[in-house]
Specification:
The protein is an alpha/beta fold.
């Protein structure tokens, strides 16, 4: 809210004089009581506690009076119990809680309805009290004065009620006294409302008006500590908009934001009353359902079916689909982060299966997730303990079999980590973010090897893979050049490989890094060419020095004429770019001969050597030279 909170100070000497007339309390005591209330407001004490202190303060000042403070709830348009003095019983408080303002609803209900003070000199004969005469007699009420509490804009905040066991007509001093306590209560309620609004905004996603991550965590923590949820199985659901980047590109950011709003509205409408529906991140939403997986899955399937009807964005229909992951979740025993990770994994499976579907995280996914976490831990430990061993595999010239370079490949050493295949730990490193540390360690090894074994390498270059995470980090080119200078290595001795399956927009941040690396003198290669998303025009946009045809083309050679045709296509694509070509995955002399006959220039694979430690690679190189 833009308005400032009401000032936490009172200047009411007339009211204090009135209090002293009615009570034996000294002025210092009265001032101390007022200060105590204001301090409670400033400290953000619970509203009921503060209003109770005000009511008790009023009763202490006027012992013959019974005080209550009711708070107006705009949502239910009713008066809810706020604070009461000691003279009013709990039964009285419960009886009037939820009172609806009206033209003849006692003193408090009528004061709220009229938005002005109501004085009932004798409730036994006042028409406003006709329905409540017995209730008043039960609680010893004969006279009632009610004053509406208002904010600075004149909006209703609540009602301050003062009751007496005898007929009382207020004097001018009495009314000043009533205004004093009412003003104090108004300050408390208005501060509470503004604080509640600020807290609501902090827990709400401003675009969709759903909850946000903060609210998700608070709700989860609350459920974990709630006895009602002990041993109870709920469902945590992750919803992800399919192809949202495409929608964003086609619609533009403003209309894409409106699309997210429509998705949120339809999801809220279809899921109904659930413990939580929150926007988690970008185009992802999280819901907590009280059902177990079976029922939850059907509800989510109904939600996804609802999106097969287009939503309207800026007056036009837009078709959007969702992929969903559902996880059985016991709040008291499973950490929220674990449940979210499982739901995300289920969403990824749903996307791989074609999107617009629900996947329930079951035993097989749970086992895979456990294995994923185990590999992540082993990989992290291996990196931290310098147990990443770079192996070298030669790249040879097909015309004479002479090596022209080595590719540096990471392997893990020690304990359980040693048995993990790169095909397993590299994708996990990518997902977990460990790929940056892993890639940096391999890059440093390559620089050190080029510096320390220049003679033994006989002028051969080294190839090192760059991950997409490394490629999108600011300053990659500068850092890599600084590392080369630190080791005294000429940049052209290092070829940096980018995997085509991770190919990025050539106009994006990767383009600047690639251009910077090329300008610094490093060579660039596109790995696994033919399996990813790059067109010839996009390949031409990046200054590449080498293309590496994916091993899947080489393995097709065993299919006869069809396989050879595919290899010819791969070579033709590379030749169209005017860039030297390496065939990967060459395992037999026959494959090497066929590729050479087709016109392939270079090869790499088990036919010449498996990846090997540095010492063995240098020895292999020496033997080849001697042969």
């Amino acid at each position: 809210m833009s308005r400032t909170a009401p000032a936490l100070s009172l200047s009411a000497p007339e009211a204090l004089t009135s209090i002293e007339r009615w009570t034996s309390l000294p002025a210092e005591h009265v001032l101390a009581g007022q200060q105590r209330v204001l301090e409670m407001v400033a400290a953000g004490r619970p509203l009921a506690e503060t209003l109770t202190a005000i009511a008790e303060f009023a009763e202490e000042a006027i012992p013959s009076m019974m005080a209550s403070v009711l708070v107006f709830d705009p949502q239910t348009q009713s008066l809810r119990k706020g604070g009461y003095g000691r003279s009013l019983s709990p039964q009285f408080q419960e009886a009037i809680d939820g009172m609806k303002p009206g033209p003849d609803v006692g003193s408090c209900g009528t004061a709220a309805y009229r938005s002005q003070r109501v004085i009932s000199r004798d409730v036994r004969v006042d028409p406003l009290w006709t329905p409540f005469v017995e209730f008043a007699a039960m609680h010893g009420i004969v006279s009632a004065w009610s004053t509406p509490l208002k904010d600075r804009d004149g909006q209703l905040l609540g009602v301050f009620g003062m009751y007496y066991g005898e007929i009382r007509e207020p004097s001018a001093d009495d009314l000043r006294l009533v205004d004093h306590f009412s003003h104090l209560a108004s300050i408390a309620v208005e501060h509470w409302r503004q604080d509640a609004e600020l807290k609501r905004q902090a827990r709400q996603d401003m675009l969709t008006r759903l909850g946000n991550r903060r609210l998700l965590r608070e709700v989860a923590d609350g459920m974990a500590g709630d006895p009602a949820y002990q041993g109870v199985t709920c469902a945590l659901v992750m919803l992800d908009c399919d192809h949202f980047k495409l929608h964003n590109d086609l619609l533009g950011q403003r209309l894409a934001d409106e699309l997210l709003q429509r998705v949120a509205e339809r999801s809220r409408e279809r899921l109904g009353d659930v413990p939580l529906l929150a926007r988690f991140d970008g185009d992802q939403f999280v819901a907590i359902l009280k059902e177990r997986n079976g029922t939850a899955q059907r509800r989510v399937e109904d939600l996804l079916a609802a999106f097969r009807e287009p939503v309207v964005v800026d007056g036009s229909p837009v078709t959007v689909s969702l992929s969903a992951g559902v996880v059985e979740w016991q709040p008291a025993t499973m950490p929220l982060d674990e449940a979210l990770a499982q739901a995300m994994e289920a969403v990824e499976v749903a996307k791989r299966l074609g999107r617009d579907r629900v996947v329930v995280f079951g035993d097989s996914e749970r086992a895979r997730s456990t294995g994923h976490r185990h590999v992540t831990r082993l990989l992290s430990e291996a990196i931290a303990e310098n147990r990443v061993d770079p192996f070298l595999q030669p790249i040879v010239r097909l015309s004479d079999g002479r090596p022209v370079a080595f590719e540096v490949l990471a392997r893990l050493r020690g304990g359980d980590a040693a048995g993990i295949s790169p095909s397993v730990f590299v994708p996990i490193a990518e997902e977990s973010g460990l790929i940056v540390a892993l890639g940096d360690s391999v890059l440093r090894f390559a620089m050190r090897t080029l510096a320390e074994h220049a003679l033994s390498l006989q002028g051969l270059n080294l190839n090192v893979n760059l991950s997409v995470r490394q490629l999108t980090r600011d300053g990659l080119a500068d850092r890599t050049l600084a590392l080369a200078r630190e080791h005294g290595v000429a940049p052209e001795r290092l070829t940096l490989e980018i995997t085509e399956s991770q190919w990025l927009d050539v106009d994006g941040p990767a383009r600047d890094n690639l251009q910077g690396l090329k300008e610094a003198g490093f060579r660039l290669a596109l790995d696994d060419f033919g399996t990813g998303y790059s067109s010839l025009s996009r390949t031409q946009a990046i200054p590449l020095d080498q293309l590496k045809i994916d091993r899947s083309f080489t393995t097709q050679l065993s299919l006869g004429a069809r396989g050879q045709a595919l290899c010819h296509v791969g070579l033709a694509m590379a030749r169209a770019c005017g860039i030297p070509v390496v065939a990967e995955g060459v395992e037999t002399p026959e494959q090497a001969a066929q590729l050479r006959a087709m016109g392939y220039q270079f090869g790499q694979g088990y036919h010449w050597s498996r990846p090997m430690p540095l010492e063995r690679a240098l020895a292999w190189l020496q033997r080849r030279e001697a042969a």
